[in-house]
Design a protein that fits this description.
about 350 residues; alpha/beta; 11 helices
């Protein structure tokens, strides 16, 4: 939850008064239970809980919004995101759209290791998480088609998988801060470090601990500073050593409710992510949104452009670095790309259902 909390706090400083004043219907909470849920490992849970929130009337055009790693549906209800999208006359006006935001497996009100199974909870990956989202949408909510799948970071990677696993289910796909390629480079190196911080902590005891191990908390803050926030924004937040120390101290202090097993599973789930072989299956138009200062997905690698060439209908919006951007966290500031989303949706025809 730390990354989402810090990003929300920083980004809210840059939100316009209009965004903060946006008026959309109150979110409604729900929990869907997927019976006999089979994971990619072959393990089966008799009941897998999938928590979610919805905004708007079920008769509206359905839109699926997907959150980032360690966060939950609540992270997408911030003024800088929801406040710039779901209000009257905004791109995803809740008077017209039925907005669905699930808690992915492992977080929020969805099933997770800390519910009781600890280290015996089935190992899940991103494909399993998308399968749970699909079952929520189809079995839980009775939908047979989506107008849009939009996701941030991990949610953006899930959006790519929606395009490859369910190519005819949605009219449009918007992956944000996410590449259609396997884990590699700094992104995976840093993930590997935070995963190892849990596994190599003697207090972890293969997940059978009675008190929370502590090493992963420092690793979590290290990962966040190294891969999220943007060079300009972090420099502004810590222009001298004392100010920089306050940033670190505040982030460490926020880590009181994290569970080591949950945290391990959340990051380890990304290990085998790789939609690249199936990009040609994506039939929905794609609008990929990224930022020039994204620390996890640096555009200079050319990975995004290479992947988009293999998608039949895809284009990239690359937000230039500025004092308003926040590195990997830039795309949670919806006002920076909301006009692009509005124009994109206006150009995408509705598919027959």
């Amino acid at each position: 939850m730390l990354f989402a909390t810090v990003l929300a706090a920083i980004a809210s400083l840059c939100v316009s008064p209009a965004a903060l004043a946006a008026d959309y219907p109150a979110p409604k909470e729900g929990t869907f239970v997927a019976r006999n849920f089979r994971f990619h490992t072959g393990d089966v849970l008799p009941e897998l809980k999938v928590g979610y929130v919805t905004i708007g009337d079920p008769s509206g055009e359905p839109v699926l919004i997907l959150h980032g790693t360690t966060a939950s549906s609540a992270s997408m209800l911030t003024p800088e995101f929801a406040g710039a999208l779901f209000g009257p006359d905004q791109p995803l006006d809740a008077r017209r759209y039925f907005i669905i935001i699930p808690d992915s497996i492992g977080v929020g009100r969805s099933s997770k290791p800390s519910d009781g199974l600890k280290g015996t909870f089935p190992r899940y990956n991103y494909a399993d998480m998308v399968d749970a989202q699909y079952r929520l949408v189809t079995e839980g909510l009775g939908l047979r088609h989506l107008r849009l799948v939009l996701g941030y970071s991990m949610g953006g990677m899930h959006a790519w998988l929606w395009g490859t696993q369910h190519p005819d289910f949605t009219d449009a796909i918007v992956p944000m801060a996410a590449q259609p390629a396997p884990m590699s480079g700094r992104n995976w190196m840093m993930r590997r470090m935070v995963i190892d911080a849990v596994r190599n902590d003697p207090a972890w005891n293969n997940g059978n601990y009675t008190e929370q191990p502590q090493a992963f908390r420092i690793a979590n803050v290290f990962f966040g500073i190294a891969t999220t926030g943007g060079t300009l924004a972090l420099q502004a937040a810590g222009p001298d050593r004392a100010a920089a120390d306050k940033v670190v101290d505040s982030r460490l202090a926020a880590l009181t409710k994290m569970d080591a097993n949950d945290y391990l599973y959340q990051w380890d789930a990304s290990a085998d992510y790789d939609p690249s072989a199936d990009l040609g299956r994506i039939s929905a138009p794609v609008l990929a949104i990224s930022s020039a200062d994204d620390e996890r997905n640096p555009p200079e690698t050319g990975i995004m452009e290479a992947g988009l060439k293999r998608v039949p209908q895809a284009r990239l919006v690359l937000i230039p670095t500025s004092p308003a951007t926040r590195g990997h966290g830039t795309t949670v500031i919806a006002r920076l790309w909301s006009d692009d989303l509005r124009a994109f949706l206006a150009s995408v025809p509705k598919r027959p259902q």
